């Protein structure tokens, strides 16, 4: 097979400091993991700040960042790369993981359990002391440079056997537990991200807490910080709070008519 050139996907370099408010000691812990070339696992519900944290750390450590949103069709070839026919020639195209390893970037595999099982074959040798990426199709073994770091995220809340992270995978990572920030900090984050006043932000957080209490009794997940930010943006844009909460929060967390009515009722009681 004629191997013409290597095309790399774009690696994002963050010039501007992303806004991230630390919740605990996650920043120094992550820096220590990076210095020690250890891969990191971020556990926690959707929309609680994991992606923003990784963006902030990539900026702080001055590393390019490659983010992959994993889904159930994602294969090892999607991560590693494949040969393509371009203008009658065979061209190797690095996938995002290979590009990140070569560039010494931080590679963030979001919701890794969603990906096909064969992806673990390429993740495992990168996530232990070997720090290598086997590219079988090219007969190549890429050694990760010091700057490379593998970060994966996973939501243990889904509690499905199919979506469990196997011990052989999880025991390769330094794990961080994420959750929604405490009420005061979450209100400050929502206010900072959207420009809404502290009083409205505090009400949104109160509403979120009520929905989070319904987790397991009608809702799979309560309102995430991300949804509060969405609602806040609509409110700043002039949408009445109750309508903003219905569209950005209630409709996002459930399709169930009774549950929708209950969640809507909660927001009406607050605003
Ligand atoms: P996840 O990756 O956990 O699904 P994100 O990182 O996308 O969630 O967080 C969703 C949104 O919540 C962010 O875009 C940001 O606006 C806000 N957010 C959550 N936690 C924080 C935090 N600690 N500092 C700053 N913003 C935060």
Structure in words:
With 271 residues, the chain is an alpha/beta fold. It has 2 domains: 3-177, Rossmann fold (3-Layer(aba) Sandwich); 183-270. It contains 11 helices and 10 strands. It has helices at 26-35, 50-60, 76-80, 96-103, 119-123, 167-170, 183-194, 198-212, 225-236, 241-253, 257-270, and strands at residues 6-7, 40-43, 65-69, 81-86, 89-94, 106-110, 132-135, 140-143, 149-154, 174-177. The strands form 3 sheets. A 5-stranded parallel beta sheet has the order 3-6-9-2-10, sandwiched between helices. The protein has a 3-stranded mixed beta sheet with strand order 1-5-4. A two-stranded antiparallel sheet has the order 7-8. Strand 4 and strand 5 (89-94) form a beta hairpin. The protein is elongated, with a radius of gyration of 21 Å. The chain starts with 5 loop residues before the first strand and ends with a helix. It binds adenosine-5'-diphosphate (ADP). Adenosine-5'-diphosphate is lined by residues 19-21, 23, 46-52, 181, 189, 193, 225-226, 229.
The CATH superfamily of the largest domain is known as: P-loop containing nucleotide triphosphate hydrolases
Which sheet architecture does the biggest sheet show? 5 strands, parallel
N- and C-termini, Cα separation: 66 Å
Order of helices and strands: EHEHEHEEHEHEEEHEHHHHH
Q: Give a count of the beta strands, DSSP E runs of length 2 or more.
A: 10
Organism: Sulfurisoma sediminicola
Domain CbbQ/NirQ/NorQ C-terminal: 186-268
InterPro entries: ATPase_dyneun-rel_AAA, CbbQ/NirQ/NorQ/GpvN, CbbQ_C, P-loop_NTPase
GO molecular function, one term: ATP binding
